[in-house]
Amino acid sequence: ADSWKNTPIVALILLAGMMSIPKDLYYAASLDGAGPVRRFFYVTLPNLKSYIAIALIIRGVSEFNIFALPLVLIGFHPLILTTLAYELYSTTTIYLSSAAAVILLAFISVLIVLNIKLGGRR
Predict the structure, then answer these.
(1) Residue 85's domain spans which residues?
(2) For residue 80, how many other CB atoms are within 10 A of its CB?
(3) Same domain, yes or no, for 55 and 3?
(4) Pairwise CA distance, residues 113 & 5, whole Å
(5) Based on the domain organization, do 50 and 92 belong to the same domain?
(6) Same domain, 122 and 102
(7) Looking at the predicted structure, is the pLDDT value of residue 83 above 70?
(8) Which of 9, 53, 74, 116 is the least buried, fewest Cβ under 10 Å from its Cβ?
(9) Pair 89, 40 in one domain
């Protein structure tokens, strides 16, 4: 629902990654007889892996920060974890809202760790 807001950020991250790939790699791949599809899968994607991981981290964490958008789009807060913590806090059940916030923190932490592991470090 909020892809209009985050798509330009992801596009800029991937564009920066594509601009950082040396042209010599594409030239060497074409000399070795690789077509456009092979150059994409064997040159572009491996070099973009860390940029894709960064984009996924930013996009994934921003998905957990949606509070106002469901209210504007459908008129009430659906009971998803991000809005559940807010609703419980506003109804003065502080202990339940704290538990929901800790669970939300755990989900975000797992998402970040997975993306760092999948992104790989060189």
Answers:
(1) 64-122
(2) 11
(3) yes
(4) 24
(5) no
(6) yes
(7) no
(8) 74
(9) no
Q: Virtual CA dihedral for 70, 74, 77, 82, nearest 10 degrees?
A: -20
* Interval 15-48: pLDDT, tens: 999 999 999 999 999 999 999 999 999 999 999 9
Q: Are residues 34 and 75 in the same domain?
A: no
Which of 22, 37, 63 corresponds to the end of one domain?
63
* 40-62 pLDDT per residue, tens: 999 999 999 989 988 888 887 77
Residue 78's pLDDT is: 59
Give buried/exposed letters for 82-107 (b at 16+ CB in 10 A, else e).
bbbbebbeeeeeeeebeebbeebeee
Structural tokens at position 67: 């509070």
Q: Give this prediction's pTM.
A: 0.64
